[in-house]
Amino acid sequence: MNSFEQLQHLGSEAPHVFENVATLLIKVEYPASLRTRLSRGDSGIDAWIADPETARQHIFQVKFYSGALDSKRRSEIENSFQTAQTSSNVDMSRWTLCLPGRLSASDAKWFHDWRNGHSGVVIELWDGDKMMELLASSKASTARRELSRRGITGIPDGGATLLPLVFVNIEDAAKRGFDSALILQINNVGDKTAKVLKVKVKFTP
């Protein structure tokens, strides 16, 4: 089982945790997009991203389905899509289904056939492989920590992620006889300690 499928051991809490982590990974994939987190199950939407130019929306539906997609689960997927598509509050251009694992051959064929039966909206799948790929990103440290504190294993190691900030302090520098002072702050938001750190600062007056 991958890191997401292991969430089933949390019982009734698993869908909520998976939705939270999936939402964090959506932000990893679309860091510069406008995204608003909606209430769980609101209009068949778990999260969405608005195109800044057209205002049309990319809708994400998160389903914690472990194992095969039986007729009940397939119906729920279809209903979630239909609800989002017919909502008066949504102008949908793309719809993405997020699942914790891989689809079986029969489930993949069903999804392919169902997707091809709809036009005007791009339908795609983020399965367990795609989710694990995003989880390995250097920008997914928050999602990794959320899984780790739940006792999940097999989480990719993202390493150290350093965010440098440079401040120019003129007032305090003047008191010491300088024109200005540069204050360098480096924050590590990754998963590992940075053992060797080299900083090179270029200043052009």
Question: Helices and strands in order, then pairings?
Answer:
Layout: H1 14-29, E1 34-42, E2 45-50, E3 57-62, H2 71-86, E4 92-98, H3 105-116, E5 122-126, H4 128-135, H5 141-148, E6 162-169, H6 171-175, E7 181-188
Parallel strand pairs: 3-4, 4-5
Antiparallel strand pairs: 1-2, 2-3, 6-7
Quick structural overview:
The protein has 205 residues and is an alpha/beta fold. Helices cover 32% and strands 24% of the residues.
Query: Strand content of the residues, in percent?
Result: 15-25%
The largest sheet has its strands arranged as 1-2-3-4-5
| Radius of gyration computed on alpha carbons | 22 Å
Residue runs with pLDDT of under 50 for 5 or more positions: none
Q: Count the beta strands.
A: 7
**Class by helix and strand content?**
alpha/beta
H/E element sequence: HEEEHEHEHHEHE
Terminus-to-terminus distance: 56 Å
* Individual helix count: 6
Overall pLDDT score: 85
Categorize the overall geometry. Answer: elongated
Largest sheet: 5 strands, mixed
Helical content stands at 25-40%
Descriptive notes:
- With 205 residues, the chain is α/β, with parallel strands linked by helices.
- The chain has helices spanning 14-29, 71-86, 105-116, 128-135, 141-148, 171-175, and strands spanning 34-42, 45-50, 57-62, 92-98, 122-126, 162-169, 181-188.
- Strand 2 and strand 3 form a beta hairpin.
Q: What structural keywords apply?
A:
elongated; 205 residues; two-stranded antiparallel sheet; 5-stranded mixed sheet; alpha/beta; 6 helices
